């Protein structure tokens, strides 16, 4: 008898088929149950390994043993003519058929029953909802070309190299965001998964994307190894993977290679030819590392020490490469933040921010980050809304897929009273970074200045659910409640605010609304002592609530003199100043500030 015939007689082929189908069913059941039971991601890999290990053992067992009415016996112990392998074959056929039915049922259940429409992720214990407040829900239909770039894992021995892996991830995000037809989830949402063991399918579901890029970075001296892979979320298949071993001198080429290969893998070149690459970059590795340190610090918040660390790193990058446009743009942004937070005088900070952004644009005229900072200075210092809007619109045209650009553009539009455009751009920012609290705060502000207070409250509450301890959230919710006439609730929110000037101003404004002028003036006096003229715009709002028009216009003049960014950012649309709009002085002020008229 031939070997194949003997294998068939001993049911080895049937056992192999039975084992394969049973193993597949076990893996599917394990995938469903392990997540619910909190089993780590390696649990499924362990199960797969055990099943693969058991496969040859099952085949050997089928060859050596036969199941007889008296129990298991070695094949050589079975009397000639007493073999019942044909009966066992029938039983195996039945079991295989049953398992195939179960397998088909699992496939159908996974595709049509267990899958749910994508929803916004709700990290940090937030409660998930069918749609985000204020209309900020992520679109329920995944775009044909959409991607999330997970933070590259730092595999270096020196954990201080974290900035490098984070920076490389961010640079890839920036490059891919400029590809027409590709929706790229922005930094905050992507980085919310940093350090967590998550399944690709969960990430894709949370962020509503159909592709995920992940990778790792191992840096040692002047050598770096970058491993990356592109995964299709629908079936967890690997569309493309690659490992790069390079000198740091080649890191810029590696970025371009990865970006271009991702685009090829997504077949985006069928949509529209696109140049993928960094504008305003450098070829000096040490300058690039300094720039990444600056970006890393800038993303850690707006504490004064953090912003100054970022500024120092950007200055170092510029020292190493005086032609590094992106470093100048980073410096301009850091200076802008330092001045806006009154960590340095308004006039000094904004003037230095202007110089840095203008230098960046001399080196790279189409750099969106520099255009946005320049637009902010044009708006708040030059009092030139038209020029500021032109800068913002140019940045938007250059990088419509950028979260930062959409966010900033929305701010310009609601400051100019263009509510529909502001809200549309704010919703686009939410779509690009659905887990970013700042996106929902910005949407809340756009809705607030459009007098859509209920929607604004829902959006800010959603931001608070994403980041319960986030500064300024209670302040913004308190402002909305004041406009809703919920003064006592607003006061309670202001009392919870951790930013001192916002807490003091909110209390003063509430006391003025509650007809308690002495308490309002006491809070305002404390603000004068702590902040001087830097809070002039807030003094104008309090005086307006108290009905003191002359004092309100005097404070507005002071805000204009010191270039208080609150003036240009709010005065044209601020509901707190509605009782001043009938005064002829308000029309004069609007014309002097460059606005077309009162709202």
How would you characterize the overall build of this protein?
- This protein folds into 4 domains: 3-114, no CATH class; 133-270, Rossmann fold (3-Layer(aba) Sandwich); 279-356 and 370-383; 471-599.
- The chain contains 26 helices and 8 strands.
- Helix 16 runs antiparallel to helix 17 (437-449), helix 19 (473-483) runs antiparallel to helix 20 (487-496) and helix 19 packs parallel to helix 21 (500-513).
- A hairpin with a 2-residue loop joins strand 6 (211-220) and strand 7.
- The protein is elongated and about 115 Å long.
- It is of the alpha/beta class and 599 residues long.
Looking at the structure, the CATH topology of the largest domain is Rossmann fold
Low-confidence stretches: 111-143, 267-277
**What class do helices, strands and sheet pairing give?**
alpha/beta
Total number of helices: 26
CATH H-level superfamily title of the largest domain: ABC-type transport auxiliary lipoprotein component
CATH architecture of the largest domain: 3-Layer(aba) Sandwich
Overall radius of gyration: 31 Å
Taking the alpha carbons of the first and last residues, their distance comes to: 96 Å
Helical content stands at 55-70%
Keywords:
61% helix; elongated; 599 residues; two-stranded antiparallel sheet; single chain; six-stranded mixed sheet; Rossmann fold; alpha/beta
Question: Summed up, what is this model?
Answer:
With 599 residues, the chain is of the alpha/beta class.
């Amino acid at each position: 008898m031939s070997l194949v015939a003997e294998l068939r007689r001993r049911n080895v082929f049937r056992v192999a088929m039975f084992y394969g189908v049973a193993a597949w069913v076990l893996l599917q059941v394990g995938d469903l149950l392990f997540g619910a039971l909190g089993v780590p991601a390696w649990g499924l890999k362990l199960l797969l390994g055990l099943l693969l290990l058991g496969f040859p053992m099952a085949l050997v067992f089928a060859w050596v043993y036969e199941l007889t009415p008296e129990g298991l016996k070695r094949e050589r112990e079975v009397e000639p003519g007493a073999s019942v392998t044909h009966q066992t074959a029938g039983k195996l056929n039945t079991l295989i058929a049953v398992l195939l039915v179960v397998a088909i049922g699992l496939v159908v259940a996974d595709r049509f029953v267990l899958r749910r429409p994508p929803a916004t992720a709700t990290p940090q214990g937030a409660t998930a909802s069918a749609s985000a407040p204020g209309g900020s829900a992520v679109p329920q239909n995944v775009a044909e070309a959409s991607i999330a770039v997970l933070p590259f894992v730092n595999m270096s021995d020196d954990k201080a190299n974290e900035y490098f892996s984070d920076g490389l991830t961010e640079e890839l995000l920036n490059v891919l965001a400029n590809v027409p037809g590709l929706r790229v989830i922005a930094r905050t949402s992507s980085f919310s998964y940093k350090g967590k063991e998550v399944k690709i399918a969960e990430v894709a579901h949370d962020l509503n994307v159909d592709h995920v890029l992940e990778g790792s970075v191992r840096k040692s001296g002047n050598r770096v190894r970058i491993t990356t892979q592109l995964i299709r979320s629908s079936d967890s298949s690997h569309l493309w993977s690659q490992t790069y071993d390079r000198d740091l001198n080649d890191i810029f080429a590696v970025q371009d290679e990865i970006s271009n290969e991702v685009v090829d893998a997504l077949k985006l070149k069928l949509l529209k030819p696109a140049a993928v690459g960094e504008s305003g970059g450098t070829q000096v590795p040490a300058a690039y590392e300094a720039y990444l340190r600056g970006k890393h610090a800038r993303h850690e918040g707006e504490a004064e020490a953090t912003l100054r660390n970022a500024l120092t790193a950007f200055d170092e990058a510029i020292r190493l490469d005086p032609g590094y446009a992106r470093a100048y743009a980073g410096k301009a942004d850091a200076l802008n933040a330092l001045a806006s937070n009154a960590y340095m005088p308004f006039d000094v900070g904004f003037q230095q921010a202007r110089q840095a952004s203008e230098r960046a644009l001399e080196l790279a005229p189409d750099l969106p980050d520099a255009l946005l900072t320049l637009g902010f200075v044009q708006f708040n210092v030059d009092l030139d809304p038209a020029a500021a809007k032109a800068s913002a619109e140019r940045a938007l045209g250059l990088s419509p897929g950028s979260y930062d650009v959409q966010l900033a553009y929305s701010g310009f539009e609601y400051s100019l009273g263009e509510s529909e455009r502001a809200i549309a751009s704010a919703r686009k920012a939410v779509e690009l970074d659905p887990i970013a609290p700042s996106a929902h705060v910005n949407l809340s502000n756009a809705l607030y200045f459009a007098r859509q207070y209920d929607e604004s409250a829902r959006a800010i509450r959603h931001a608070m659910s994403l980041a319960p301890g986030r500064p300024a959230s209670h302040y913004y919710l308190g402002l909305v409640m004041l406009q809703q006439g919920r003064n006592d609730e607003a006061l309670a929110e202001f009392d919870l605010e951790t930013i001192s000037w916002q807490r003091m101003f909110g209390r003063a404004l509430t006391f003025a609304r509650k007809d308690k002028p002495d308490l309002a003036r006491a809070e305002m006096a404390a603000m004068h002592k702590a902040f001087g003229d830097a809070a002039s715009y807030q003094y104008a709002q309090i005086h307006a609530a108290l009905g003191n028009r002359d004092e309100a216009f005097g404070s507005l003049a002071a805000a204009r003199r010191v270039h208080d960014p609150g003036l240009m950012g709010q005065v044209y649309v601020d509901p707190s100043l509605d009782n001043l709009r009938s005064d002829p002085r308000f029309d004069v002020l609007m014309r002097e500030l460059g606005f077309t008229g009162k709202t």
